[in-house]
Amino acid sequence: MRENRKIERHFLYWVCAAITILGICLIVLSFNIPIFSSEIRSIGTTLCSIGIIGFIFQYYFHTSLESRLEETVRLLEGSIKPEVAIEAERVGIKRILLDRYEFDKIRLDLYNKANTVSWMSIAPSLPAQYNMGEELVKFLERGINFRFLLRADDRDFQATVARLAKIKNDNKGPGEVEIRCYNEEPTWYIQIIDDTIYAQPYLHDVSAAKTPLFKMEKGGDCYEYFLRHFESVWNNAKPIDEFLRVEKKLEGVEN
Fold first, then answer.
1. What's the number of CA atoms in the CB half-sphere (13 Å) around residue 167?
2. 180 has which bridge partners?
3. How far apart are CA 27 and CA 40, in angstroms?
4. How many helices (H) and strands (E) does the chain have?
């Protein structure tokens, strides 16, 4: 529809230009033809006026009016919210992302503006197209702090611990890395980036690519609930060094 309007608008411009050029040609011609020169010049002048006025009308009235109408429609679309959007905003949900991959597209930009990132998941691994070690070390060099909550009975636990330990050891910047372990079922994937929380539920037999992720900002009820949930798990979790020492002692007793 928009392409059709653009073609129509360009066609009208060409018509106005053609009428103007025809008028100019008649005016020039009138100086070389002694008979009916005044009449030809008058017609040429009239055509020039019509072409120029048509061009101005097309630009100022059609183009300007169209842009104003589009802006009005955008404003109306922004002000007329469906009931579900009103209810979501009322409890503090500012945005709903389609899936984890949509969050990954904006994650690095969010880190660039952050001071502290708190991360709770089954295993804080990233999609294959990212190198978590390199990117987190760069953020640590900028002074951004990271807190990781690891689920102890996750099948990738040892590999995740080794990866995060390497990041912590490679860190040469002012940023800090804290790693803690917990044993309970996580139920939610959570990232707290300063005063904004992104949370996604874990569903059995459903991939992260099919589960929505909710954005909550400080001041809303949902933000406070998820922050309390994260801090409760964090406070009850054990620092990674202490956890590994306990696990090693238990293995020694069993042997």
1. 28
2. 149, 239
3. 7
4. 9, 8
Of residues 51, 61, 96, the one with CA closest to residue 199? 96
pLDDT band at 3 (very low <50, low <70, confident <90, very high): very low
CA angle 112, 159, 174 (to 5 degrees): 35
Q: What would the two tokens of residue 220 be?
A: 């809303």
Q: What is the mean pLDDT of the chain?
A: 79
For the residues 67-93, what does the mean pLDDT come to? 66
CATH number among 3.90.920.10, 3.40.190.10, 1.10.1740.10, 3.30.870.10, domain 92-254: 3.30.870.10
The DSSP code sequence of 100-129 is HHHHHHHHHHHHHT-SEEEEEESS----TT
Rounded Cα distance between 76 and 65, Å, is 16
| Residue of higher predicted confidence among 121 and 39 | 121
Stretch 151-164: mean pLDDT: 83
Distance CA 193, CA 84 (A): 25
Does the global pTM surpass 0.70? no
> Any idea where the domains of the chain sit in the sequence?
2-79, 92-254
Query: Residue 175: which of 131, 124, 139 has the closest Cα?
Result: 139
Of 75, 53, 64, 54, nearest to 12 by C-alpha is: 54
Q: How far, in Å, CA of 22 to CA of 39, rounded?
A: 15
